[in-house]
Design goal:
The structure is a homotetramer.
Chain A (H helix, E strand, L loop, with lengths): L3 E2 L5 E7 L3 H14 L9 H4 L1 E3 L5 E3 L12 E7 L5 H8 L4 H6 L1 H5 L4 E2 L21 H18 L2 E8 L16 H10 L6 H11 L4 E3 L9 H10 L2 E3 L6 H15 L3 E11 L2 H6 L2 H19 L5 H4 L3 E8 L8 E9 L5 E9 L2 H21 L4 E2 L22 H16 L2 E2 L9 H9 L1
Parallel strand pairs in A: 1-15, 2-5, 2-7, 5-6, 7-8, 8-9, 9-14, 10-11
Antiparallel strand pairs in A: 3-4, 10-12, 12-13
Helix pairs in contact in A: 1-3, 1-14, 6-7, 6-8, 7-9, 8-9, 10-12
Keywords (chains A, B, C, D): Membrane, Transmembrane, Transmembrane helix
Protein name (chains A, B, C, D): Inositol-3-phosphate synthase
Organism (chains A, B, C, D): Lysobacter defluvii IMMIB APB-9 = DSM 18482
Chain lengths: 441, 441, 441, 441
């Protein structure tokens, strides 16, 4: 029996909970790229290269069969009723003149009513929410939304990428441990089931891959992993790896490569967008903090290198600072030591743009999740760790944070997928087993 | 016929042209480490780990048979007559109290008279130079020095690491193209033969591996590569990869991994040590500048990625600024662009210590050059690129600058060497061919 | 009747609650300066100049009759029993070798037992505290300490400078409103009377000037101002103006001078000394935050310049970060706008040393408070605002924060004092009225 | 005899040699302000306040009678024929949409042909130059331009502000020493007479005040000072004090106020506009460097404070870096020392906009030069030092660099001018003597 991959025929729905700064920057950007007004910089699937068979760089789209930008149809949910043009203007990421040129196209995209629970995002007070009582009923309403959107837009396939706000910090409890308990919890309106989990549940149930761009759990609970495997759906998370953490996962392996010691890494951020406002709530920040703090330990392994990293103070601060809007700025102070313990310092000031860095990641995750789905892969896609601050892994494995090892694993998986035979007309699916092995090792 | 490696039996002479800041920091540091007063941080051979057979990290000294620090005997040449204690005090890298504790041991090491040509380092005016006319005679005097030092100190083997000042910028000319022309040039006192080349020639002729820590050519000319192969001697260069360029070769691959564009990279340095003083001369700076500028182009490949890197302005400035002494400080401004071409900036301020970063590199190169020699490897050791700003390669190959690929190549070669059988008592050498292949690919 | 000033005859006791980093750096420094091992840089009274009568710079000690360093006798109280040598070693501000050279002299200075209330500094757990119940009794014990110290050390005069930790945030309440209420509160052990107030009360009652280096209220309550006036004692506060706030009060007037607008000023600090540890408690930080936040508003006057400063976000963060010890580091991001509202940014990274900046301020305040006392000045010394983050003023006046105006007022007052006639042998005091006018306008 | 000031009746021509980034930003900005599309931030005359009689802040326009923006008529000369709209688009300082809104008004302003000498600006190759041989004839042609412009635009008065490129470094020679020599030099085409001097000569001869925004000599030679006095014309210079030097003259007085020592101040700049391109020529840079270097010495007086400033290394670098365009960025490293000589560092990164900072200075100088002229002041206006990096002074006086003292002098002079009686209908002028005294002390 041969392994095969379904070709990317037909339109692909890209559905996003949260039509805020990231989602509207993505949607407007793809519109601009389609009209050749701009380039999709930062997107590996569109602009990146990987080493080909002979080592020379080849475009990723030449290695694996990806959906093209022309085939994407964007939609989503939001707690505010603004259409994408209005939301993009408020997000103030892209220049007004640029948005103006795309206005009619963007105005046509209106959010569906959101499933929302203020207990999970106390700082937001949206009104555009479903008038549906009960989490099970909310899940069904979302499934109706998904199917309705696909039908209305003539889509063959769909993917869901969580672009909404960070929810308050929670840890998995009994209700998340297996699918039965979870579905019972939905019926019972268990408060431990967050809105993001209801979205993830609805997506997976519909056979739609789910990728989580925020640090809250969403699909990162055993019940939903189980469901994803049962339904043959790929899932991935958590938390888009953008500015500061991206830099950290680039730099830390470099310092480690040189056997330089680290005794402190202080990271501060200032940002003024809706994300910053939500994170101004300590419980929501806690979710983000946990996501950001794990990075160094996993790369540097103080347990194995106590002389170099055993006494490392790692702190992360996020400050809501309105004057900067979406122009997130990070400042890192890294205290390192070298030969004989002599101390040195590295200061990094990154004047980044949060959504400009996140949008191409959301795009790549949409296209690669769809690719995985067509290749018959299901469950946690560890090979997509490259894109996440806090990579979801299976069964207590140690996540890989080193961006260069993540990239190597991404390339390796793409190469394996690229070697699959296309499925024949009848569209028989590829067996998942071998690929899953490729993706999780 | 089996491949073998000679074990590191007996004492190893580490001979350094230039007993300045780097060399004295190395010598004092090894003395402190031997007495367990400090740790050799920054040295991969002493503190680093690499993935072992099962992927878990192992110490490098457990993979390959390295000379131990106890077996090292340090010596060198300098244009100033100061002993190592005095020179270290003037260099002002290590704390006076620390040097005081090692004083007797350091005072015993006195430089041999240097081969020096003021035309190559106009800003230095040393007096402790050999009173020998003619470059051929100078080469012979150096060979006498090497053999004399080894005999006097009971050394079985030796390595030479260039730790002296950067010479003025020159490009290879006819006299460097083959060994006959070079040796004729020595006899004729050809002005195109720099002192560093005379040292390299003397070392190789004596069967002593040569590693070049400065950006001047030294062994990076066809004549000396030819000699190294003929004599079965490993050579490597150029220019210790310390602060700013190290950061560059860490960061650039990371930005590239994310398909982020770069339109400018401005690098400025301030330093106040002897190195800075020498580089204050434009002709000497030119040598350094060429070494530092090549890095980005080779990593980012603007030829293949013109949309992302085709319009990149890369500038490097070095400023002699006495207040900072050896505390070199770099400041980088990196202008990047992401999604739709939106611009962002990264600023890096590295408060480093030049010699603290360089000393462990010199140590590693001494030990790994000796390792290569015992493993029968000769000619250019491209697998040591990890340590160099401007890696010497053979025959027009493209140097590898990406620090993570350099590290992978280093690991791979160490693994191959680690798999060699020890040579038997008779000490028959390992055939170089297979290893050379490993090292240069 | 003529105005006179008593000459600085005899020894001056400098008594400090809190023999921690600042106090020990001051004491060790004065010891080093006396032996000509170092210079009292940062002290205006020792190294600074002011415009003389003809505008050309003259030394301050040539303008007014100051006590000399040789006449100072240091003492203090602390919750830890370490002598000054031990405390200075733990504070790790000065180099061990430097402290070693002064060791016998520093070891002789041992703290008296402190008046301490853990409710005011929850993060400290000192044991070297007075076993005296009741705040009135504690005040009497401190007065005994003061008189005992002066007698034992043959001191003619004394000053007290608060160098202890920041207490938790409180606002003045009824018990602070007049002296009777305050003294009744002492008798009743009113919880709103902080230890710093007991010290201030004891000092003033003894005729000893009091200066407050921390942001807690201490003498900044009506009851103690009343007492100071009644007793003819000068007082001053609050909070030594060191690193970041110093920079702020230098820069803000400069930006304002150019009519440049500001829409955000974000200030972050990392420090790892005891001060940082205490401020890690939110209630203690609140005291500091209030002290630091008032600065900009008073300089920029958004009420008068709403177009330029009406929408300014000012945030201050302090992070306890042990790797830096006393080497406090601040990072400021200032968002300014110019012509037509175009935006620009200023980033300031100050790698300072907290106690190195604070010690000379404590010295100047000791000497200038004594000067004021000899000149017959009493009550709040607004002319010492130059030294404080949050200058204590009288009766609801607006504090002056602009460092250049503060300096002008300091100079003006010194000039007036310098013009006083020396008191005759009988030591009759100068009338306070005219001087108080000089000092408070 | 009463002192009087002529009221600002009628239109004022503002003539600028160099219609580049600064001039077009000024012209477009004033157009935008007139239409209430933006605010003239950074202009003291428009937005600033000064202490009024009772100390409370008052608007400067309420203190002295200034020309209003509605009365200004802009014109100038350039070596390129672009109209102001085109030139502003190329300068890329203001946003395209903003310029578009002002387009017709800006297109109407076309440069007159320039007097240009490539020997003074080797990097520029303009074609829009006068076809007039001989410097005397060129001066006459400029005078014709001035009078023609005033007549054509119905202007009562005019001022000239040099906004053109920095000329190569020269020092005053014999031909500049007195007016006769200078005028003879004009006739003889003396190569030491720079184009900027011809402009200044023409302006002064026409009774038009001249202010010099670049560091080249222009009116800063005895001959032209003599002419200015003889003709009763105010002149001022040199070099608009914008980003880095502004910061320096703010910070240095602050550090000095605290008696903190400085042993190094390293200043680097990157900029990519035409100014940067011109300064890429070492001879032109030399002019700028001299202007920028004098600042610290005059403020800190190492001669009087050798312990604090006697060993200070001050370096300034300017790097032409195209990616930043007009967004000049400076980076300063300041090495300071405090108590006992302990070292600290301040790093300042100023992301400024060159022309945004310069345009309001040019505006203020135009209005204040006109004010001075109406008040009968002539010769060097030292009270305008506030605006200049390298203030022109008379007769070997020491320039004042401290921005706070400069501001005080500015305020004082404005107060004196504000106290003048308006001239009566007949328009009799104010006597210059008393005012000149105010302005030069």
């Amino acid at each position: 029996m041969e392994q095969t991959i379904r070709p990317p025929r037909g339109r692909l729905a890209v559905l996003m909970p949260g039509l805020g700064a990231v989602a509207t920057t993505l949607i407007a950007g793809v519109a601009a790229v389609r009209r050749q007004l701009a380039e999709p910089v930062g997107s590996l699937t569109q602009m990146g290269r990987m080493p080909g068979e002979d080592g020379s760089p080849v475009r990723i789209a030449d290695v694996v069969p990806l959906a093209t930008l022309d085939e994407l149809v964007f939609g989503g949910w939001d707690v505010y009723p603004d259409n994408v043009y209005e939301a993009a203007r408020k997000a103030a990421v892209l220049e007004p003149a640029q948005l103006q040129a795309l206005r009619p196209e963007l105005e046509r995209i209106r959010p569906m009513e959101a499933v929302f629970d203020p207990a999970y995002v106390p700082n937001l007070h949206g009104s555009h929410v479903k008038d549906v009582r009960g989490k099970a009923a909310q899940a069904r309403a979302l499934m109706d939304d998904i199917r309705g959107f696909m039908q209305a837009n003539g889509c063959e396939r769909a993917v869901m990428v969580w672009c909404a706000s960070t929810e308050v910090y929670t840890q998995p409890s009994m209700v998340h441990q297996d699918l039965d308990a979870f579905e019972e919890g939905l019926e019972n309106d268990d408060p431990a089931i967050a809105p993001s989990m209801i979205y993830a549940y609805a997506a997976i149930r519909c056979g739609v891959p789910f990728a989580n761009g925020a640090p809250n759990l969403a699909c990162d609970v055993p019940a939903l992993v189980q469901l994803a495997k049962r339904c043959g759906v790929p899932i991935a998370g958590k938390d888009f790896k953008t500015g500061q953490t991206l830099m950290k996962t680039i730099l830390a392996p470099g310092l480690q490569a040189r056997a330089l010691g680290i005794n402190g890494w202080f990271s501060s951020n200032i940002l003024g967008n809706r994300d910053g406002y939500v994170l101004d709530n300590p419980d929501n920040f806690r979710t983000k903090e946990v996501s950001k703090l794990g990075v160094l330990e996993d790369i540097l392994r103080p347990d194995l290198n106590p002389d170099l990293y055993g006494d490392m103070h790692h702190q992360v601060r996020i400050n809501y600072y309105p004057p900067h809007g979406d122009n997130k700025e990070s400042w890192d102070n890294i205290d390192i030591f070298g030969w004989l313990g002599y101390r040195m310092q590295i200061k990094i000031n990154f004047l980044c743009r949060d959504s400009i860095l996140a949008a191409p990641i959301a795009l790549d995750l949409a296209l690669l999740s769809d690719l995985a789905s067509r290749a018959g892969m299901s469950g946690v896609q560890e090979w997509l760790s490259f894109y996440f601050k806090s990579p979801q892994v299976e069964g207590g494995a140690r996540p890989e944070h080193d961006v260069f090892r993540q990239l190597a694993k991404l390339h390796e998986t793409l190469r394996r997928i690229g070697a699959l035979e296309p499925a024949d007309e009848a569209g028989n699916e590829a067996p998942a087993a071998a690929l899953a092995a490729a993706a999780t090792h």
